[in-house]
């Protein structure tokens, strides 16, 4: 039996969630399908920079203009996802003066506010900057939490009647002649919230229109309907520091190159990145040299990075696209603009459009463009409101109380909670008493964890991205167990066990790239705690081989 | 790193004055959180968190609070004022997190930004922290001062107006300060170009227990050292504990300058109070960057430790006996423990015939300098001390022994024991006659 | 002038304390220098000897049966079964009534806070009534403010593990705890001193209040398990009071870090060190060493850093028991793994991407980092020769075994500490000073 919807949005990244919100606000019935957890693809694997556009002010001015425009909008509608850090393009002695000048002029041409600072002024803002940094350009870069942003879009879409399905993998596009009319989806066996469909089932969903917003995976999805989309996936590493060495976005002011940006992100600083084309966005090498390059090259800008602790590294795949005849060889040179590929125009197949390219900063504009297109196709007359309506959590931010004594939380925990929850702070925090801290590294309390569980079910990775629990220096060593406990009794012991295992494995995955010094000690402590004190590796629960209890010491 | 280490040869840019010190004005201790692996060993060593759950423990106050900070976040949880600055977390941490530095800095920020300078608490803390400034007045009229301080009405007033607990008796002021004695004595009796020490006596042995300071002089002169007594200010310990970092900075500046001059003169710095030596050795380099701070820190020693390493102290004490002392109940102050000095006194006294020193365990005495003087902390302070009191009560000893002046107040207050300093025992062992008094 | 002793043990964990105590069995002067507090405070307080062997799937019933299956470089193979047994006997003597399990070679299965069970050879008396081979029904009790131990979840997990008894869980609030972030030492202290707390009808001791909070949850179970925070100094008294009040056996489920059972074990060891006359210097690191004159293979003295002052310590024999990656006796950088005091050889792959494997619980190379040693536990250099004639190593600074996967941590620390300390003590006389 097939279910039907107006529009099917494929992909639960920022673009997909943005589209779902936009269309739902325009009154359409929307279903969004995501293979894993929201943000699992490229959105959750970026450095969290809300571009001022300065980065593209020389090479790609169209993108730069788009960025500054959206940057201004997101500060308004997503205040609780954005930290106004400001950004610096810093110049070392060996970096070109001419390029510095070009950058400055480029910014001005694109309407990006830009101020020149002396090295000393830059160091007053960021004391850990290298003493030989000569000059800097100050621009309105900011830090954005992609998880929170994406989830807020999804929450609002749901509030407007959209159906959001995670762990739902599209296994086929339904095509009848020259018309795509739906998908076949397999609902995953992993943990997660599936209120509509039992786990493990295959479902057909038909729709008036299908939007392929799967980014780097757009080619694979289009291929299911024998359509060709030449995405040029390009990988980049991001290395996460344990603490913020800087509170301002630091860019290296030079034309291009790996390892040229440091983004302060929540409690951490993220070093980025590399740019290497890959064949398969699901399978590419994650290499040591990339991590080493982040540390060694960026230490030229911020020398204490050389000795500082990194807690993990991760890779993301950019969904780069350029029209087939452009033929750019170096992925760094491929435009960051987005493209709307209407398969009716392009391939003569109606009912589906793919959206590729672009970047998180412009997700809303991309969503607006494709929503306009869909509405035109479906003959719906409704205008876009996403640039004016704040996202859930960002309403009335100015009234957010700084003093949160009544929740009995210590001030930094209260502060961090309100930075994450925005205008939802009160409704979330007043729900639990006692309300102990579950994740000490990030200051996440039981109330916030329970709020996330209410949204996302037993998927602890989904809880993680909503709360930041387990994303601090112990990388879940001390709180995976606590988080799993919070699932009980709403979920049974077996579900809790699976959810724990999945989170624990996920946390280990990224840490492997940070295994030296303090983080290796941390990893050993985590390993010892879970294998020795808890004996998780020898856990007989669910094991077919029964233990002969009587053969062991009975104590008496 | 300073510009001096890594000069920029950029001439094209606008003029920048040459800098001697790094530009960071405020202490950013977030990188210190890199060492923390969340094991909570610090918490299990915190004597305050054990008896008072309003205090969330050193891990939270230290690496967690710092890690959760952004440059423009200035709120510090007020619970940091409950930290007694015993610094046990420092020596506990298996991963070398600079916990006490984080606490000192956070406390300083809290007092600076969030405590009203007109509040009773601030005024009281300022008075307690600046004992050094009040003591000279009292010492000028010691008998009157002792009389007035001892009046119950004074203590009652102290509690009502200032929040200084009325449960405690103020320490008595000596009729003659150590420095007066030293001056009258005509200074050093031994001259020795090759072996000199600069004695950092601190406030307490100057104003309250000059017998300890005199013992130090006699002992060091016995070993042939020339003793210098340089001008000095308070070590800063009570100021750190009360978040009065500016007061501490001024005091430290004087001390570093004077002690560096003594080093220049060929002397090593010796302290008889374990908190004074702790402050100079650890807190100065952690918090201040005057010229010579590191040098002074690296050449400052505890009185017994120095003799032990530089002289054959054990050989000298072998077979010695002391009169006038019975067995001791010894408490190692937290600040001695942090310097690796916890076992030293018991080891040395073991060598002397006729006395035994019984270690009364590794708990904190609970007073932690000015902490236990505050009315709101009195009860907590006594709860922390309970374990030590129990052990002292059951110890087979007649006299208490410790290096720390405020621990000795607490020991006396909690058990009624008379409390002495190890230097006094050492003096008695090295000299058959009675201690020099005139 | 150096501070002189016969044997100098560096490191104050289980291995270091055991080595010092074993050396002190001889008539020699022993000093133990420990920088920071040991990882005992992280550990469960259980004395595991060997819970799993490479050749076996399930938990080992008898650890001694599997010793032969361990690789040659394993510390157990270096010291041999007899030494392991002697070390255990040494510990049993030391621990007295505080530990149980010495009546049999068989492992005991202890329920954990996660609801799994783990094999161990000796366990605190406080844990004894909780063993999983005991068929009596169990009630587990957790507390709302301690999110790491969800008693009903642990109970459900234990049932899934097939334990031969019925087990239920209940969650209460802990009387007298006012803040949600109180430390475990606070809970323990409340019980230790039986602090009076205000209730409707006046005041009541915390122990009585806890009994009141729990008794309503009992449904005929014969034993009740609490997270391991039932007192510190007066733990036995606390447990007895609770057991009497509830009319059932009371036991602790190991927790941590931080771990009260680990802290109690540490106290027990340090009391023993004091009784044995071992001199303890704590809070300061050994930072370097000097060899004796021309002979590069003898350590003459080590240097202890006391907040900047360099204090030499001389002994004739040295034991290195500074721990592994967690205790910081083994440290690492991006390119190397090293032992920081004597720079003893640590074997490891050059490429740090070979220090781990992908499955978190698979055979992890990093878990085996440490020194290799000869039969007397002298650390060996890259060529297999002793680094120094008078240096021995004990505990997790040794490599070649994965204590976490094997559940052998305490056993190896005891056995190697005992052997290294005994050899060091004996060797004092052989050396002309």
From TrEMBL, chain A:
<feature type="domain" description="FAD dependent oxidoreductase">
    <location>
        <begin position="6"/>
        <end position="364"/>
    </location>
</feature>
<dbReference type="GO" id="GO:0010181">
    <property type="term" value="F:FMN binding"/>
</dbReference>
<dbReference type="InterPro" id="IPR017752">
    <property type="entry name" value="G3P_DH_GlpA_su"/>
</dbReference>
<dbReference type="GO" id="GO:0004368">
    <property type="term" value="F:glycerol-3-phosphate dehydrogenase (quinone) activity"/>
</dbReference>
<dbReference type="Pfam" id="PF04324">
    <property type="entry name" value="Fer2_BFD"/>
</dbReference>
<dbReference type="GO" id="GO:0006072">
    <property type="term" value="P:glycerol-3-phosphate metabolic process"/>
</dbReference>
<dbReference type="InterPro" id="IPR036188">
    <property type="entry name" value="FAD/NAD-bd_sf"/>
</dbReference>
<keyword id="KW-1003">Cell membrane</keyword>
<keyword id="KW-0274">FAD</keyword>
<comment type="similarity">
    <text>Belongs to the FAD-dependent glycerol-3-phosphate dehydrogenase family.</text>
</comment>
<keyword id="KW-0560">Oxidoreductase</keyword>
<dbReference type="InterPro" id="IPR006076">
    <property type="entry name" value="FAD-dep_OxRdtase"/>
</dbReference>
<comment type="subunit">
    <text>Composed of a catalytic GlpA/B dimer and of membrane bound GlpC.</text>
</comment>
<dbReference type="GO" id="GO:0009331">
    <property type="term" value="C:glycerol-3-phosphate dehydrogenase (FAD) complex"/>
</dbReference>
<comment type="pathway">
    <text>Polyol metabolism; glycerol degradation via glycerol kinase pathway; glycerone phosphate from sn-glycerol 3-phosphate (anaerobic route): step 1/1.</text>
</comment>
From TrEMBL, chain B:
<keyword id="KW-0408">Iron</keyword>
<dbReference type="InterPro" id="IPR017900">
    <property type="entry name" value="4Fe4S_Fe_S_CS"/>
</dbReference>
<keyword id="KW-0479">Metal-binding</keyword>
<dbReference type="GO" id="GO:0046872">
    <property type="term" value="F:metal ion binding"/>
</dbReference>
<dbReference type="GO" id="GO:0051539">
    <property type="term" value="F:4 iron, 4 sulfur cluster binding"/>
</dbReference>
<dbReference type="Pfam" id="PF02754">
    <property type="entry name" value="CCG"/>
</dbReference>
<keyword id="KW-0004">4Fe-4S</keyword>
<keyword id="KW-0411">Iron-sulfur</keyword>
<feature type="domain" description="4Fe-4S ferredoxin-type">
    <location>
        <begin position="72"/>
        <end position="105"/>
    </location>
</feature>
<dbReference type="GO" id="GO:0016020">
    <property type="term" value="C:membrane"/>
</dbReference>
<dbReference type="InterPro" id="IPR017896">
    <property type="entry name" value="4Fe4S_Fe-S-bd"/>
</dbReference>
<feature type="region of interest" description="Disordered">
    <location>
        <begin position="1"/>
        <end position="24"/>
    </location>
</feature>
<keyword id="KW-0677">Repeat</keyword>
<dbReference type="GO" id="GO:0009061">
    <property type="term" value="P:anaerobic respiration"/>
</dbReference>
<dbReference type="InterPro" id="IPR009051">
    <property type="entry name" value="Helical_ferredxn"/>
</dbReference>
Automatic annotation (TrEMBL), chain C:
<dbReference type="InterPro" id="IPR050315">
    <property type="entry name" value="FAD-oxidoreductase_2"/>
</dbReference>
<feature type="domain" description="FAD-dependent oxidoreductase 2 FAD-binding">
    <location>
        <begin position="6"/>
        <end position="412"/>
    </location>
</feature>
<dbReference type="GO" id="GO:0004368">
    <property type="term" value="F:glycerol-3-phosphate dehydrogenase (quinone) activity"/>
</dbReference>
<dbReference type="Pfam" id="PF00890">
    <property type="entry name" value="FAD_binding_2"/>
</dbReference>
<keyword id="KW-0560">Oxidoreductase</keyword>
<dbReference type="InterPro" id="IPR003953">
    <property type="entry name" value="FAD-dep_OxRdtase_2_FAD-bd"/>
</dbReference>
<dbReference type="GO" id="GO:0009331">
    <property type="term" value="C:glycerol-3-phosphate dehydrogenase (FAD) complex"/>
</dbReference>
<dbReference type="InterPro" id="IPR036188">
    <property type="entry name" value="FAD/NAD-bd_sf"/>
</dbReference>
<keyword id="KW-0288">FMN</keyword>
<dbReference type="InterPro" id="IPR009158">
    <property type="entry name" value="G3P_DH_GlpB_su"/>
</dbReference>
<keyword id="KW-0285">Flavoprotein</keyword>
<protein>
    <submittedName>
        <fullName>Anaerobic glycerol-3-phosphate dehydrogenase</fullName>
        <ecNumber>1.1.5.3</ecNumber>
    </submittedName>
</protein>
């Amino acid at each position: 039996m097939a279910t039907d919807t107006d529009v099917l949005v494929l992909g639960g990244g920022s673009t997909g969630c943005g589209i779902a919100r936009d269309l739902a606000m325009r009154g359409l019935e929307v279903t969004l399908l995501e293979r894993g957890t929201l943000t699992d693809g490229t959105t959750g694997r970026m450095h969290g920079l809300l571009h001022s556009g300065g980065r593209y002010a020389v090479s790609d001015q169209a993108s730069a203009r788009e960025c500054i425009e959206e940057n201004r909008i997101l500060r308004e509608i997503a205040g609780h996802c954005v930290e106004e850090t400001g950004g610096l393009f810093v110049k070392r002695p060996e970096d070109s003066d001419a390029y510095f000048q070009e950058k400055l002029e480029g910014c001005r041409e694109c309407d990006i506010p830009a101020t020149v600072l002396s090295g000393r002024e830059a160091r007053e803002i960021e004391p850990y900057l290298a003493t030989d940094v000569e000059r800097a350009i100050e621009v309105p870069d900011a830090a954005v939490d992609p998880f929170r942003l994406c989830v807020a879009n999804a929450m609002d879409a749901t509030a407007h009647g959209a159906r959001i399905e995670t762990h739902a993998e599209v296994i086929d596009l339904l095509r009848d002649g020259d018309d795509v009319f739906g998908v076949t989806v397999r609902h995953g066996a992993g943990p997660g919230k599936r209120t509509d469909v039992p786990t493990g089932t295959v479902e057909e969903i038909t729709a008036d229109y299908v939007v392929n917003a799967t980014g780097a995976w757009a080619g694979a999805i289009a291929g299911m309907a024998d359509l060709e989309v030449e995405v040029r996936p390009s990988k980049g590493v991001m290395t996460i520091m344990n603490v913020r060495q800087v509170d301002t976005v630091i860019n290296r002011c030079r034309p291009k190159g790996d390892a040229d940006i440091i983004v302060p992100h929540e409690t951490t600083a993220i070093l980025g990145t590399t740019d290497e084309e890959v064949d398969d966005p699901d399978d590419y090498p994650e290499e040591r040299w990339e991590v080493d390059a982040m540390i060694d090259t960026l230490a030229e800008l911020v020398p204490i990075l050389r000795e500082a602790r990194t807690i993990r590294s991760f890779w993301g795949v950019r969904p780069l696209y350029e029209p087939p005849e452009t033929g750019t060889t170096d992925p760094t040179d491929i435009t960051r603009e987005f493209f709307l590929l209407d398969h009716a125009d392009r391939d003569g197949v109606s009912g589906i459009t793919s959206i590729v390219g672009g970047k998180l900063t412009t997700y809303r504009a991309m969503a607006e463009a494709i929503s306009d297109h869909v509405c035109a196709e479906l003959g719906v007359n409704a205008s876009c409101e996403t640039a004016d309506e704040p996202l859930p959590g960002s309403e009335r931010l100015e009234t957010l109380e700084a003093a949160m004594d009544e929740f009995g939380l210590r001030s930094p925990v209260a502060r961090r909670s309100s930075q994450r929850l925005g205008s939802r702070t009160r409704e979330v925090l007043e729900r639990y008493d006692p309300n102990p801290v579950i994740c000490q590294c990030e200051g996440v309390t039981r109330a916030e964890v329970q709020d996330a569980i209410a949204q996302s079910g037993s998927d602890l990775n989904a809880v993680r991205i909503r709360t930041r629990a387990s994303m601090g220096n112990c990388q879940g060593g001390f709180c995976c167990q606590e988080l799993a406990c919070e699932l009980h009794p709403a979920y049974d012991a077996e579900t809790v066990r699976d959810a724990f295992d999945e989170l624990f494995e996920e946390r280990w995955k990224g840490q492997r790239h940070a295994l030296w010094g303090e983080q290796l000690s941390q990893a050993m402590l985590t390993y010892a705690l879970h294998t020795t004190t808890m004996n998780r590796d020898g856990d007989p629960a669910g094991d077919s081989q029964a233990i002969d209890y009587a053969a062991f010491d009975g104590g008496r | 790193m300073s510009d001096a280490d890594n000069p920029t040869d950029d001439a094209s840019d606008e003029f920048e004055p040459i800098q001697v010190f790094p530009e960071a004005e405020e202490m950013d201790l977030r990188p210190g959180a890199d060492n923390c692996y969340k094991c909570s060993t610090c918490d299990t060593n915190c004597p305050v968190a054990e008896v008072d759950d309003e205090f969330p423990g050193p891990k939270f106050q230290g690496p967690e609070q710092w890690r959760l900070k952004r440059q423009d976040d200035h709120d510090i949880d007020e619970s940091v004022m409950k930290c007694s600055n015993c610094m046990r977390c420092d020596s506990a941490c298996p991963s070398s997190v600079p916990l006490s530095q984080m606490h000192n800095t956070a406390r300083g920020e809290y007092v600076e930004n969030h405590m009203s300078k007109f509040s009773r608490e601030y005024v009281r803390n300022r008075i307690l922290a600046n004992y050094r400034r009040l003591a000279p007045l009292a010492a000028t009229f010691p008998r009157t001062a002792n009389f007035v301080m001892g009046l119950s009405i004074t203590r009652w007033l102290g509690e009502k107006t200032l929040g200084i607990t009325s449960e405690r008796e103020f320490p008595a002021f000596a009729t003659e300060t150590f420095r007066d004695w030293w001056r009258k004595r005509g200074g050093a009796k031994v001259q020795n170009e090759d072996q000199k020490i600069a004695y950092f006596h601190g406030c307490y042995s100057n104003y309250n227990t000059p017998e300890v300071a005199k013992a130090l002089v006699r002992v060091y002169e016995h070993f042939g050292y020339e003793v210098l007594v340089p001008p000095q200010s308070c070590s800063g310990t009570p100021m750190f504990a009360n978040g009065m970092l500016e007061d501490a900075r001024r005091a430290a500046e004087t001390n570093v300058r004077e002690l560096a001059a003594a080093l220049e003169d060929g002397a090593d710095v010796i302290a008889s109070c374990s908190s004074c030596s702790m402050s100079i050795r650890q807190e100065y380099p952690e918090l201040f960057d005057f010229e010579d701070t590191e040098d002074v820190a690296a050449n400052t020693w505890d009185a017994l430790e120095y003799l032990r390493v530089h002289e054959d102290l054990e050989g000298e004490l072998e077979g010695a006996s002391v009169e006038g002392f019975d067995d001791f109940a010894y408490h190692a102050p937290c600040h001695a423990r942090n310097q690796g000095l916890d076992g030293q006194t018991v080891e040395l006294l073991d060598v002397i015939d006729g006395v035994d020193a019984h270690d009364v365990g590794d708990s904190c005495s609970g007073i932690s300098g000015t902490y236990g003087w505050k009315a709101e902390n009195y009860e907590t302070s006594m709860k922390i001390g309970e374990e030590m009191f129990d052990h002292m009560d059951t110890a087979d000893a007649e006299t208490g022994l410790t290096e720390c002046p405020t621990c000795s107040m607490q020991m006396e207050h909690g058990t009624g024991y008379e409390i002495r300093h190890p230097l006094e025992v050492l003096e008695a062992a090295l000299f058959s006659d009675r201690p020099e008094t005139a | 002038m150096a501070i002189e002793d016969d044997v100098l043990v560096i490191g104050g964990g289980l291995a270091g304390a055991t080595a010092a105590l074993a050396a002190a069995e001889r008539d020699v002067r022993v000093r133990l220098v420990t920088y920071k507090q040991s990882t005992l405070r992280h550990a469960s307080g259980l004395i595991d000897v060997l819970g799993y062997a490479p050749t076996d799937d399930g938990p080992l019933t008898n650890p001694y049966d599997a010793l032969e299956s361990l690789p040659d470089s394993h510390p157990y193979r270096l010291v041999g079964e007899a030494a392991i047994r002697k070390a255990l006997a040494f510990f049993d003597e030391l621990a007295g009534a505080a530990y149980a399990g010495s009546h049999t070679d068989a492992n005991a299965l202890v329920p954990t806070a996660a609801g799994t069970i783990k094999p161990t050879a000796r366990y605190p008396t406080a844990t004894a009534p909780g063993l999983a081979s005991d068929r009596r029904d169990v009630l587990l009790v957790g507390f709302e403010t301690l999110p790491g131990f969800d008693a009903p979840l642990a109970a459900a997990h234990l049932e899934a593990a097939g334990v031969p008894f019925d087990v239920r869980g209940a969650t209460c609030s802990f009387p007298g705890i006012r803040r949600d972030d109180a430390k475990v030492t606070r809970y323990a202290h409340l019980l230790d001193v039986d602090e009076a707390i205000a209730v409707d009808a006046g005041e009541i001791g915390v122990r009585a209040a806890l009994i009141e909070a729990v008794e309503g949850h009992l449904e005929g179970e014969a034993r009740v398990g609490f997270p391991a925070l039932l007192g510190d100094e007066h733990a036995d008294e606390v447990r007895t009071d609770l057991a009497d009040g509830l009319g059932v056996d009371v036991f602790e489920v190991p927790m941590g870090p931080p771990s009260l059972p680990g802290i109690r074990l540490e106290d027990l060891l340090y009391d023993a060190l004091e009784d044995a006359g071992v001199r303890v210097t704590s809070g300061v690191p050994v930072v370097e060493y000097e060899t004796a004159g021309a002979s590069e293979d003898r350590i003459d003295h080590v240097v202890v850093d006391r907040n900047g002052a360099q204090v030499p310590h001389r002994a004739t024999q040295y034991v290195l028991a500074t721990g592994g990656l967690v205790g910081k006796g083994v440290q690492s950088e991006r390119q190397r793994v090293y032992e920081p005091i004597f720079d003893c050889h640590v074997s490891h792959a050059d490429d740090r991407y070979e220090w781990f494997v992908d499955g978190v619980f698979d055979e992890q190379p990093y878990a085996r980092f440490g020194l290799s040693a000869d039969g007397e536990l002298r650390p060996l250099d890259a060529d297999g020769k002793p680094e120094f004639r008078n240096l021995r190593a004990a505990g997790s600074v040794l490599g070649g075994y994965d204590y976490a996967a094997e559940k052998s941590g305490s056993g190896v620390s005891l056995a190697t500490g005992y052997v290294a300390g005994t050899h060091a003590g004996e060797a004092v006389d052989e050396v002309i000073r």
